[in-house]
Amino acid sequence: MTTPATAAQIEGGAGLRSDAAGPVIGSDKPRSSPTVAMDLVAFADMISVAMGALLPAYVYSLIGGPATSLAMVVQAGLIAGFITQMWMRNAGMYDLEKISDLPNHPLHLLSGIAVGVAAVIGFAMPVIALHGHITVWFGAWIIASFTLVLLVRGVARSILTRMAAAGRFDRSIAVYGAGSISRRVHDHFAKTRSGIRFVGVYDDRTGEDRVNAEGLTVSGELDDLLRDATAGKIDDIVIALPQSADSRIAAIVRRLEQAPSNIHVVTHIATDLVSTRDRHRVSQIGNVGLIDVKDKPLADWAPIVKRAEDLLVAAVGLVLALPILLAAATAIKLDGSGPVLYRQRRRGLNGQVFDVLKLRTLTVTDSDDQVRQVTAGDDRVTRVGRILRRTSIDELPQLWNVLRGDMSIVGPRPHALIHDEKFSSMLEDYANRHQVKPGITGLAQVNGLRGETRTHDSIRERVDHDMAYIRAWSLSLDLKIIARTLFVVFTGKNAH
Fold first, then answer.
1. Phi, psi dihedral angles at 196 (to 5 degrees)
2. Quick check: pTM over 0.85?
3. What's the confidence (pLDDT) of residue 18?
């Protein structure tokens, strides 16, 4: 499970973007993760310290000094660079505001570099033969590294300041419940230099039941909030209702769980009003206490790592599968008339519809509103189709869907649109699966949940596995599922 947004993360950045009378809904422009940006600066600092170690080695080589091992110099530099960035991270130097306020923090940078360089003296001695020159060596190293770090941070300051001014690091926050708490949250952002865009207030109560919105314009109802969040316009949702509305709060939390956003409840609400399957964290926005009841899936580095994984695995997979696909296509054509490939509409990330590609294994190609799940002994399956389905070769064209960005290698399996509608009516939280891209394989599939879904319990079990995957995503989990998928495909269990 990803780490919930802390108060520092929520308030980090630059530039308030809101309107006291009626904030503008978050724009569709691309946004960047400040965590990723700061990690890149930390990496640049580490490399700067390592490169700084090469300067005295180069100078000594020019003046004919004692020979040194270049490998040991690089090793010492990398170790010192790692220690330096850890020291500065602990000192809070990887914060957007610290980068913007660079002239006021040179001593912090210098002390961090000195600590990193001094730490390697005892166990990584590239200058063991220099004896009395060791002080000069390390002095030159610190000066060179400090100069490079200042240069790196000067460039980073210029780039990140422009990105912050353009709103690239803004977090969009919306409040459900028009009242004094919403007013307090808005006022806090109006007084604080923060990277928060206050999207607006949402509430379902109308007419005489409408509570006093404290001068804030109500942007819409719960359905509007869910639609805006699903469209990627809202990062954080704060549910701010009176304690007496406990049952209503619980229902709203369940409804908003399908939104790809962080969800918080003001802390005067007892924790037993929401699901207790996860341990909830407490954070705050200004003087408003919050319980973090749901985290935004695949935040910060996660989408970058997962996309890189998808591109690499899909590209290699397509190359390796090309002979198999050609053989399968030939067999399909020889087995009877009809297309080799067929397209079927499925729902992907945030419920967006896309065309999934598969090798044709049936004698018919049903329209989207007439799709029937394939069952054991189904007479619609062709002779070649039975082999393709048992070995999952019919799924290989979906590697192209992965390269296109419609799907991932690992994720919740997409269902036909008519089945999506049926399962959504059966399970309130079924749509929560659409918070991430669907996958060619998934946690449910490697745990024996392949094939048809006849009962309420069978789809319930699949959804539980899909949600467990979304909450616990990691690269290692994906690799384990891919490895287990190969075994499941080999056994052919539940493949019809």
1. -115, 130
2. no
3. 39
